[in-house]
Design brief:
Elements: E1 2-6, H1 16-25, E2 30-33, H2 41-51, E3 55-59, H3 79-96, E4 100-102, H4 114-133, E5 138-142, H5 157-167, E6 172-177, H6 178-183, H7 188-194, E7 199-204, H8 220-229, E8 235-238, H9 251-259
Helix pairs in contact: 1-2, 2-3, 3-4, 4-5, 7-8
Length: 262
């Protein structure tokens, strides 16, 4: 497994494009970015090439999701907006070449039943999986805990399992976030077993607090054993909020290199 820095949350003392080189200098193997669209795709591609870093993951545009709205992917009345967001992401990805694109399910919108939202989400994920398959880019969708994001539609491994079955496309996989699972007190190892063979990307932060590993109580050694036993060998995305100056927050990296196969 390799480790990617989520540079939307790490190295934030620097402009976004400079964070790519900073992540490389710190020993990360790649980078992921939540929403890179304010930066021209060609500029990001050039920054990645200069640093010799792959782009592991970006999110599909999600409209008002991060400011408390429902987002786009599970709202029937916002289908045209979702289609425009999909086209924007396809155009951006054709240049920037991420390995994966994450489609955030969003919150349950007012006046929409859960059944309607899930049907819309599954159809949109199938559409995205089909479109990005042409570019050789995997489509992901993730569960987020409802404590940090009230009303979020997909919360648990069981929700992800049901969603992937509904989408039924080989290019659509789960994004599995260790922090969001532990924040709910879930059995993370059981979740990994449930989704074995269908996890396309893993993100992590310690819990509680969502800080760097070692700042909370998560036993990462047990979780990594579970991932390895499941056959997962892809990327680990460091998506945490540093509790100390950025460089000081990276003490876990040397420990992980020594202790785990990363």
């Amino acid at each position: 497994m390799k480790i990617a820095a989520n540079i939307s949350m790490l190295f934030t003392e620097l402009p976004l494009l400079e964070r790519v080189q900073a992540a490389a200098a710190a020993g990360f193997d790649g980078v992921e970015i939540q929403f890179p669209y304010d930066v021209p795709a060609i500029a990001l591609k050039e920054a990645l090439e200069r640093a010799g870093m792959p782009l592991v993951l970006i999110n599909l545009p999600a409209a008002d999701l991060m400011s408390g709205g429902p987002g786009l992917a599970a709202v029937p009345a916002r289908q045209a907006e979702f289609d425009a967001a999909l086209q924007e992401a396809l155009t951006y990805a054709a240049m920037a070449r991420p390995m994966c694109v994450n489609v955030l399910p969003g919150r349950l919108a007012d006046g929409v039943s859960r059944e309607q939202a899930l049907a819309t989400l599954a159809a949109n994920l199938h559409k995205a999986a089909e479109a990005f398959q042409v570019l050789g880019i995997r489509v992901l969708s993730e569960a987020i805990n409802p404590l940090d994001m009230p009303g979020f539609l997909i919360n648990t491994p069981e929700h992800l399992d049901e969603l992937l079955r509904a989408v039924d496309h080989p290019n659509c996989l789960a994004q599995f976030d260790l922090y969001h699972m532990d924040r709910q007190g879930l059995d993370i190892e059981a979740g990994i077993r449930l989704l074995t063979g269908r996890i396309g990307h893993v993100q992590f932060a310690d819990c509680p607090g969502r800080g760097e590993p070692g700042s909370g109580a998560l036993d990462f050694s047990v979780l990594f054993e579970g991932l390895q036993n499941s056959g997962y060998g892809a990327w680990l995305g460091a998506e945490y909020k540093p509790t100390k100056p950025m460089v000081e927050s990276l003490g876990w990296m040397a420990l992980w290199h020594d202790a785990y196969d990363v």
